[in-house]
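fyi for ur records
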Amino acid sequence: MAERILGKTLATVSLSVALASVTVQSSGCCSIPACRNTFSSCGFHLSSNIMSSSNGAKGNSHNKARTSPYPGSKVQRSQVPNEKVGWFVEWQDYNPVEYTAVSVLAGPRWADPQISESNFSPKFNEKDGHIERKSQNGLYEIENGRPRNPAGRTGLIGRGLLGRWGPNHAADPIITRWKRDGSGNKVTHPISGKNILQFVAIKRKDCGEWAIPGGMVDPGEKISATLKREFGEEALNSLQKSGVEKRELEEQLHKLFSQEHLVIYKGYVDDPRNTDNAWMETEAVNYHDETGEIMDNLTLEAGDDAGKVKWVDISDQLQLYASHSHFIKLVAEKRDAHWSEDSETECRGL
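which gave:
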């Protein structure tokens, strides 16, 4: 038990170190340091604004993780003001609502048992068999046997719709191409003067919001496999294809996902499903089809959790699910593509 329950000092230091290691430091207007190794190994990450609330910061708190009603229910979270999001801000009267969805309590294979069950002894902050319980943001604290959201209070305890106690790992493939005119030339934005980038977006069935395709990492599954599988299922409807169609689809997906890629973000996601004891983390990876030839051979077709799918022009006008707009902005910056008509916004960063 002593090994599983982390002290506040250790948790604070570990989180600070983790955040410092993933923050991109910009030395000029929209500048991003060049990677030392190959392009595919580069990692560009959000600054620590999403996580800053864990140490009691008053601003930049996670917001979507505090919204009500909780997705798929009528449950209202206890209200958490910005200044009390951080765990190290004393709040003796904090009384969060407890909620775990019936679909999770039913015990599907992707969900943990309740903490109170005698035969359930999860190994938090480490690899627990095939289940990854380590956080991308470093060590998290355990309180009363439950993991504590490293970004701070959400007004709700339990797991909500999430299957795992602690981090629930997902993968988000960001597939991009250049917008081109009828002659095949790249389209330039008339104000910014930069080429316009497009990405494949899906409309989620659960909430109706547009998002990056993606989904949960299965136990023991490699992130690369999750990225390809989820894009095939949600943006190409691979689950409904015949055997021959699946083989043809797999050939094209192999071309797309075996090329050099860019890891945009790893870590905590400001997601409306998050609770004090369960939260979403993701690895967002950009696969760019420079010529557009690979994606020309693939027909977009919504499937699985997606209601619709389409190519979307990238700009600061996008309204996307969870933290997805931040991920898309990072892609635009790295690709030196159009993002905003306001030059000051281009330079301001996240």
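The chain has seven helices and 13 strands. thats all i got for now
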